[in-house]
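protien #1 (seq + structre)
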Amino acid sequence: MVEFFFSYDGFGALLLEAAQNTDIDLIQACAMVAVVVAVGTQTIADVGYTYLNPRIRFT
């Protein structure tokens, strides 16, 4: 949304340009960054939920 309103080229534009130019290495790098961000946010959410709810314990 920010890319559209302020004309900033971001992650989506980079991935689209890489796909149009068939730049496989850049597509793989973008996929890896997306996976790392997804796994990182899930881990932070799980750990945060564990600290907020005392009935949950790490196993």
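ok now protien #2
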Amino acid sequence: MQGYDSSTRTDISNRLARIEGQVRGIRRLIDEEADCEKIAQQMAAARKALDKAFHEMLACMIEHDVLQQRDNTTANAQMAQIRALLSKYA
């Protein structure tokens, strides 16, 4: 994550580590033939956590790449890229 401060990097890395643990837990539940509803609930929680990490990354991109631009042409081009990303992944 070039260009981002260390606290943002740490925060996103920690989020991903938690998500990784959640996914391992889901695999364990499946291997143990746990109740499908419990597995689905854990999958939904992991998906939501990943979405939150993604939104944090987008916010970071907006803060560092767009709001610091002094050139409106560059800022407008970057905002167009962000709009395209939001449309693609929303």
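The chain is about 85% helix and 0% strand.
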